[in-house]
Amino acid sequence: MLIFDEVITGFARTGEAFAADTFGVVPDIMNLAKALTNGAVPMGAVLTTGEIRAAFEHNVADHAVALPHGYTYSGHPVSCAAALACLDLFTREDMPGRARALAPLLEEVLHSFREVDWVTDIRNFGLAGALQFAPRDGDGLIRPYEVGIQCWEKGLYVRWGGDTLQFAPPFISEPEHFEFMAEVLRAAIRETQ
After folding, report:
1. Domain of 44: which CATH number?
2. What is the pLDDT along the chain (193 residues), one digit of tens a residue?
3. Minimal CA–CA distance to 163: which of 180, 138, 127, 188?
4. Domain that holds residue 102
């Protein structure tokens, strides 16, 4: 069984509707969230193949639910309305095309730091990427934290975790936003050892 966790990669982050589409794979189960409602309200979804659903439905009485899910916030009307609005925008605004158009800008920004001696790896795919930093004083968490705080103080929020800074720019970004990102990152890295 193949499960794709598309919580971050789903809804065009890789340049196609889902990473599964990008790689030409049909998973048995797909987990979705985040962009499903644009992060405005909580919602997640689990998609399965008909074969998996049939396995749950086997020997279930006609009046029973085969895949029950009855938590407090299940099917919340506000979340469902947000998801429907986001799915409409996803199609109408061609979010996969938008991500494909913006991805080279993110790649250019991230790879402009390849000469920084303590940037040990640069990864990007579609509209997602990361800068990985060498440890300082034996601690791999220091530099991402310090650069992240410097960026915050200069007006740019970046996510840090472990030894990386992680990037997933919004689909509404414009070229000048990537220029700003590069400028702030350059200053933050300069001010960090």
Report:
1. 3.40.640.10
2. 999 999 999 999 999 999 999 999 999 999 999 999 998 899 999 999 999 888 877 777 777 776 666 676 677 899 999 999 999 999 999 999 999 999 999 999 999 999 999 999 999 999 999 999 999 999 999 999 999 999 999 999 999 999 999 999 999 999 999 999 999 999 999 999 7
3. 138
4. 95-190
The burial of 122, by beta-carbon neighbours within 10 Å (0-12 exposed, 13-18 middle, 19 or more buried), is given as: middle
Within this chain, do residues 88 and 165 fall inside the same structural domain, yes or no?
no
Task: Report the alpha-carbon distance of residue 82 to residue 171 in Å, rounded.
Answer: 17
Name the domain boundary from 92, 123, 142: 92
The structure tokens listed for 56 are: 């749950």
